[in-house]
C-alpha cells in the first residue's frame, strides 16, 4: 500500500512519529508551542489500548513517566522550556535508574517564562545537564517534519537500547511550520525488558530499581558504567555535511536555523563561493570528530561559523571538537531576532573576506 | 518553479486558513511546500501573517525576506510588507480596507512592482459569504497564476474544514470562484 502523504506541523509529525515508534503511554502538562502533541496523543493512544493522562503539573508528569518506564512501557512526555526545567529532577532519576523514555522539548524563548518565539536557549540544558548529577540524555535535533517523524520513532528504539532517556530537541518554528509528511512505516526495533522491568516477582527473586548508593565504591562504579554507556552511544552519531575539502568557511547550525543557513550556503555555492555546511543531528553525543576531520582535511585553513538562536552555546562544543586546529566564530541571535538567508549570506561573505580567500 | 507568498491581514480574516489551504493545494499539485504561520503575540490580535513556499525542489529556509507575491487584506499589512516585495513582484490588495489616498508614500511603495486592487470584502458579501474574503483573495491569486485546478481546491478545502464547519464548503467555494473570475477581468493572458 502507498504511504499516505499529509500536510502537518512539526509537532504533529513528532506525535505521529511517537505512535509509529510504539509509544504506549503519554503523560504531560500543556504549554505553548507544543500542545498539538498531547492533543494527538489524547485522541490516538486510547484507541490503541495505550494511556494518555494530563497530569496536574510537569513534576507529576515526569514521575508518571518514570513509573510507566519502570514497568516496561514505551512512554513519553513533551513540554517547552519552562516545563522542561520543572521536570529536571525526574530526568536525573530516570538517568540514574537507567529507565528508557522519550522527552520532547519544543524550545521557546527564555530565561524564565520568556516568550513563545523560537529559541535554542536550552541547548546546554539538553546536552550537558538535563538534571543534577553526572547524567546525560541522548539528544536528537530534527530540522524538518519528516525528520521529526523518523527521529521520534527512532528515539523509542534508542531509549530502550541504551536504557536511557532520549530527548527530541525542537523549537517553535519547526514545531509550528507545516510541511508534507509521507507516513512511511518504519522498522523500529524492540528490546526485551524481562530482565530488568518491575513486572511482579511471581516465580523470581524480587528486583529493586534505585538511585541511592551510600557505599561510595558502588556509586563510583555506577557513574563509570553510565560513562561507558555514553561512550557506546557514539555509534548513533548523525550529521549532515556539505563539504568537499575546498571550502574556506563552513556554516554550522542545528534545528530551524540550520535550514536558513542551508539556503544561504546553497545560494552562495551557486554563485561560486567556497562555503560549506555542517548540521549536527545528534547533539549528544556531539559529532565532534567529523568537525575535526573537516579542519584537518583543509589543513586548518577553514573557519567554522556557528549560527544559533541563543547567545552562543553550541559554539563551545564546536571549539572543543576542533582542538584549536581551526577557527570557530559565533554568530548568535537571541529570541525574536530571526535572521533571513540573506543575513546569513552576508555574514558568511564577511568571514570569507577576512579569512583572506576572496571570491573565485 | 519556486513561488514565495506572504499573506497578511487582521487576525480573524482567515489569513492562516488561506495560507494553509494554499500550501495544501500546492502539495496536491506535487510541489514541495512549507507553510510558516507567525507564532507570536500577533495571533492574539493585531496583524497576522504567514509565509507559503511552493517549489519543485527541496525547500531549505521557510523564511523569505523578499517574496515574489503578497496577499494583503488590510492597511497595516500593506505598509509593513510592500517594501519587502521583490522588484517586479505582484501584490494582491484588498481595496475595501486599503485606500491609496490614505497612504502618503503610495507611489514610492509600489515603484517597480505590480499591484492589483480588488474589493475582497465586497466580493465576498456579493456571493453571500462575507466571512470568506480570504477565499476571494485565494481565488484571485490562483486566477493570476493558475497553480492548481478547481478540483484540487475543492479537495483541499474539504479536508481543511472541520466536520462542524463542513456546511461552509459551498459558500467558501463560491467566494473562491468569485475572486478567480474577478481577477480574470483584470489579468488577461
Secondary structure elements and their pairing?
The complex is a heterodimer of chains A (360) and B (189).
Chain A: E1 5-9, H1 10-20, E2 25-28, H2 36-47, E3 51-54, H3 58-70, E4 75-79, H4 81-86, H5 88-96, E5 101-107, H6 123-127, E6 138-140, H7 145-162, E7 165-171, H8 172-176, E8 178-182, H9 216-232, E9 239-242, E10 249-252, H10 255-270, E11 275-280, E12 282-284, H11 288-297, E13 303-308, H12 314-322, E14 327-332, H13 341-354
Parallel strand pairs in A: 2-3, 2-4, 4-5, 5-7, 6-7, 10-11, 10-13, 13-14
Antiparallel strand pairs in A: 1-8, 6-12, 9-11
Helix pairs in contact in A: 1-2, 1-7, 3-5, 10-13, 11-12
Chain B: E1 2-10, H1 15-28, E2 32-37, E3 47-55, E4 69-72, H2 75-81, E5 90-94, H3 106-110, E6 114-118, H4 120-126, H5 133-145, H6 150-160, H7 169-186
Parallel strand pairs in B: 1-4, 4-5, 5-6
Antiparallel strand pairs in B: 1-3, 2-3
Structure write-up:
The complex is a heterodimer of chains A (360) and B (189). The longest helix of chain A is centred in the middle third of the chain and has 18 residues, at 145-162. Chain A is α/β, with parallel strands linked by helices. Chain A has helices at 10-20, 36-47, 58-70, 81-86, 88-96, 123-127, 145-162, 172-176, 216-232, 255-270, 288-297, 314-322, 341-354, and strands at residues 5-9, 25-28, 51-54, 75-79, 101-107, 138-140, 165-171, 178-182, 239-242, 249-252, 275-280, 282-284, 303-308, 327-332. In chain A, helix 3 runs parallel beside helix 5 (88-96) and helix 10 packs across helix 13 (341-354). Chain B is α/β, with parallel strands linked by helices and 189 residues long. In chain B, 40% of the residues lie in helices and 20% in strands. Chain B has helices at 15-28, 75-81, 106-110, 120-126, 133-145, 150-160, 169-186; strands at 2-10, 32-37, 47-55, 69-72, 90-94, 114-118. In chain B, helix 2 links the parallel strand 4 (69-72) and strand 5. Chain B is globular. Chain B starts with a strand and ends with a helix. The mean pLDDT of chain B is 94. The A-B interface holds A 5, 7, 33, 115-118, 172-173, 176-180, 259-260, 262-264, 266, 336, 338, 340-343 and B 20, 23-24, 27, 32-37, 39-40, 60-66. Chain A: It comes from Caldimicrobium thiodismutans. Chain A: Residues 249-327 form the Pyruvate:ferredoxin oxidoreductase core domain. Chain A: One of its GO terms (molecular function) is 3-methyl-2-oxobutanoate dehydrogenase (ferredoxin) activity. Chain A: Its EC number is 1.2.7.7.
